[in-house]
Amino acid sequence: MSKIESIKPGDTLSKREFNPDNVQLFLYNAALWNAHRIHFDYPYATETEGYPGLVIAGPQMGDWLTQCAIEWLGNDGKLASIEYSNRKAAYIGESLHSGGKVLSVEAETGVVELELYIKNQADEVITPGIATVHFPVG
What we know:
Elements: E1 12-18, H1 22-31, H2 42-48, H3 58-73, E2 78-84, E3 96-106, E4 111-119, E5 125-134
Antiparallel strand pairs: 1-3, 2-5, 3-4, 4-5
GO molecular function: (3R)-hydroxyacyl-[acyl-carrier-protein] dehydratase activity
Organism: marine metagenome
Protein name: MaoC-like domain-containing protein
């Protein structure tokens, strides 16, 4: 039996925990050349911009969703596409987790659609996403 034959709609992806800190946030934004002060300057983020803390970069959320999908895929398939939308900000000090489930399976073509999310510690979905993955068939 191939991997695609064992996948069913509703199957869940493993949760991944994230507890980002100042160093991770700084290094991530430095790698992107993102110099917005809300990601590294606490007084600026809180006093000038009015945020409750340093803001996690939106693209970092997308990277975490991608990691969730790729971890589930393993070496059996390929990530074809991913889309996500940051709906609510996250901050240093928050505990976040990603996860998801299988939405649909096309066994004939090997195409699987995944629903992905990042939730904050209040269990609110702050970054929903959709990924399409391809598994070999035949």
